[in-house]
Amino acid sequence: MSASDAAIVAAIVFVWGALSARLERYDVTAPIIFVLAGLLLTHGLLAPLGFAPSRELVKALAEITLILVLFSDASRVRLADLRADLGLCLRLLGIGLPLTIGLGMLLALALFSGMNVWLALLVGAALAPTDAALGAGVMVNPAVPARIRRLLNIESGLNDGIATPVVLVAIAGAATAEHAASTGPGAAVAELALGVLVGGLAGGAGGFVVNVARRRGWAEGGFAGSAVLALAICAYACALALHGNGFIAAFVGGLAYGATSGKHGERLVPYVEETGALVSLLVWLAFGAIAVVPAFESLTWQRVLYAVLSLTVIRMVPVALALAGTRLGRGAVAFVGWFGPRGLASVVFALLALEDLGQPASPAVSVIAFTILLSVVAHGLTASPLAHRYGPRLATSTGGPEDAGQLPARRLIRRAP
User: Fold this and answer.
1) Contact 104, 156 (CB under 8 A)
2) pLDDT tens digit string along 286-304?
3) Helix 246-260 and helix 221-241: axis angle, to 10°?
4) What is the rounded average pLDDT of the residues 210-232?
């Protein structure tokens, strides 16, 4: 990145930081602003400034963001905190998520005749994870029952880590089908297994050390958060050095860190979240710069139909099946089904596929990109109005607006006042 590019990016981040509260009152979220900024800098009024992020920079930003998001989301998981809603979470993640991936893959095969099974699996898996930050108007609105907010937030915090191995296997399979790489799906599975082992060891040991150091006063407060940030990157890098999968190592490392670090270590996770939130803004900017125009240039009615169905039927039917037999009520189930916005994880998966596969990934990436854009607008603009309108009704069907407690999974871009 040139000095002028760095100055442009820094100026955009500064302006957003200074005006963010004002803009969010009008349901203008950070993803909307940064996608639009990336578009204007490369294909709009600001194109003469010459902003041109390199593919290497975009890939590095995507990888760093995914590492931090996977680690911080996983490290927030506390079974004791989730005990009241553990059954609902397991239903969404164990039943709803696989069904969403499967339906997404089948629809991609049905609508896109030139797409092979691996690219179809990539589309289904990349668009399955949800992002609570895009529906922040729901997550911070006290009119929505805390149980619903907690369920949506926990789901969005864990489903990206669960979908990651499926996405990586799909990319490996697509690369093999195109003879672009020697690493096939079998080798990818072996790398995932090694990543689980390395991540568990690194995260568990790191969490134990941080817990002991904080209890005994060995860690300086100003640098303790940096230690957890370094641990996330260390788990990723160690897995790569041993020819394992670094992303899975980061996710499992976060789980292990959360299990061994105790309350002393938990207080340091926001440092990782803040860093990840800043880098994620740059990812949205890069997404707007390199993915939006190609997505519209190759737009067809099949891709529009897929995007609409992805945000409705493909999401809402699996959620309804997963939550069947619970006492949430139809309104609450429909509410949970609609507020499944596609966000940061889907963007990162698309960028990684484009970098690893090149041109063969373009059809799948275009579908993913347009679906994300539709989700950013649709969920960003409907979050607050629907929360205010239907929140009180949901309180009746879910047992009342109990105390929200801690939302452990994902730090939101938009915060409560």
Assistant:
1) no
2) 888 888 888 888 889 999 9
3) 140
4) 81
Residue bearing tokens 């000095």: 3
The CATH number corresponding to 3-397 among 3.40.50.300, 3.10.410.10, 1.20.120.740, 1.20.1530.20 equals: 1.20.1530.20
What does the pLDDT average to over 14-28? Answer: 80
Q: Supply the pTM of this predicted model.
A: 0.80
Is the pLDDT at 69 greater than 90, yes or no? no
pLDDT of residue 404: 40
Residue with tokens 């407060």: 221
- In angstroms, the Cα distances linking 322 to 32, 98, 298, 315, 328 are 31, 10, 35, 11, 12
pLDDT at 79: 58
What pLDDT was estimated at residue 184? 61
HSE on the CB side for 383, CA within 13 Å? 30
What does the H/E/C string look like for the chain? CCHHHHHHHHHHHHHHHHHHHHHHCCCCCHHHHHHHHHHHHHHCCCHHHCCCCCHHHHHHHHHHHHHHHHHHHHHCCCHHHHHHHHHHHHHHHHHHHHHHHHHHHHHHHHHCCCCCHHHHHHHHHHCCCCCHHHHHHHHCCCCCCHHHHHHHHHHHHHHHHHHHHHHHHHHHHHHHHCCCCCCCHHHHHHHHHHHHHHHHHHHHHHHHHHHHHHHCCCCCHHHHHHHHHHHHHHHHHHHHHCCCCHHHHHHHHHHHHHHHCHHHHHCCHHHHHHHHHHHHHHHHHHHHHHCHHHHHHCCCHHHHHHHHHHHCHHHHHHHHHHCCCCCCCHHHHHHHHHCCCCCHHHHHHHHHHHHHHCHHHHHHHHHHHHHHHHHHHHHHHHHHHHHHHHHHHHHHHCCCCCCCCCCCCCCCCCCCC
Q: Can you read off the two tokens belonging to residue 191?
A: 């790398």
Residue type for position 260: T
